[in-house]
Amino acid sequence: MDEQHILARLNLLRIEHRDLDSAIAALSDGVPDQLQLARLKKRKLKLRDEISTLEDYLLPDSIA
After folding, report:
1. Distance from the first to the final alpha carbon of the chain
2. How far is CA 44 from CA 4, 8, 15, 18, 63, in A?
3. Neighbouring residues of 9: CB distance < 8 A, sequence distance ≥ 6
4. pLDDT per residue over 18-35, tens digit each?
5. pLDDT tens digits along 44-60
6. Residue 22 zone, left/alpha/beta (φ > 0; ψ -120 to 50; rest)
7. pTM (2 d.p.)
8. What DSSP assignment string belongs to 20-35?
9. Count of CB atoms within 10 A of residue 10's CB?
10. Cα 23–56–37 angle (5° rounding)?
11. Which of 9, 10, 15, 31 is 20 to 30 A from 47, comparing alpha carbons?
12. Is the CB of residue 58 less than 8 Å from the CB of residue 11?
């Protein structure tokens, strides 16, 4: 995967992550469906992990 593909993937993941924020907030109003809410939160965490992995790939730690 080249840098352009990684940046494009990061952009899509960040958009989905923000969309999940909105979906979780909307679902939390009133009497939430706990199972659906848990699934959305789990998906959001998985996205955060993938975003972090791709960011680390683009900006590797340098040993100083």
Report:
1. 27
2. 23, 18, 11, 9, 31
3. 1, 54
4. 999 999 999 888 788 899
5. 999 999 999 999 988 87
6. alpha
7. 0.83
8. HHHHHHHHHSSS--HH
9. 16
10. 20
11. 31
12. no
The tokens for 48 are 């955060």
Q: What is d(CA 64, CA 58) in angstroms, rounded to the nearest whole number? A: 18
Contacts with 23 (C-beta within 8 Å, 6 or more apart), sequence order: 40
Amino acid identity at 10: L
Amino acid identity, position 35:
L
- Asked if the model's pLDDT at residue 62 lies above 90, the reply is no
Query: Token pair of 35, please?
Result: 């199972």
C-alpha 4/C-alpha 6 separation (Å) is 5
Token pair for 62:
């340098």
